[in-house]
Amino acid sequence: MTNSEKAKVYQEVLEKIRLFIEQHQLSPGDRLPSERDLTEELNASRSSIREALRAIELLGLIETRHGEGTFIKTYRPYHTVSLLSTFILNGTRTKEELLEVKMLLELNAAKLGMEHINQTSIKRLHGTIMKYSGHHCYYYFIQELFLLCKNDLLLNIWQLIEGFSKTVDVADEFRDGICQELLAAIENKDEHEIQLIIGNLYHL
In sequence order, which residues have a C-beta less than 8 Å from that of residue 182 and are 6 or more positions away? Predict the structure, then answer.
């Protein structure tokens, strides 16, 4: 699926949920259509629907309960979120700014990681690298850095930006060993190397 097709799926899912809420007069706590139903109705892949729902969940609008389904958490700001999503997906300059903010957040996580790194956290980060690969490794590695810094606000902002960034052109050149290189730079407290590694991902 191309980036434009993926963006279309995100917009369709947002619109579908908005219409479903209005037509059925749902309130916080009410259940939304299942991933399977959305997949069939929108003729999109299950993974694309899941990613879109995850992005909406990161906004705090819905919540997924294991074994039960997806439920409305709050609705009042939904129209604003829909407009925000459309603005991000359609504005070329906004896409660039989105990725720039994402990169700056990741740089900040790595630099804060330098201040909090210890043998326990090094072991956890090594474990993350062993468990995942490619883009998944980088995502969970950065997430671990935010958890290490114990800054939930930064983590939530980054996860929100990460969710939206799936709809735009993001560098996919997650070469083998990049997380190991980043961890080594953090251990060595080499801020210049950290900036070089992360900047190269975004071609900056």
Answer: 110, 141, 194, 197, 198
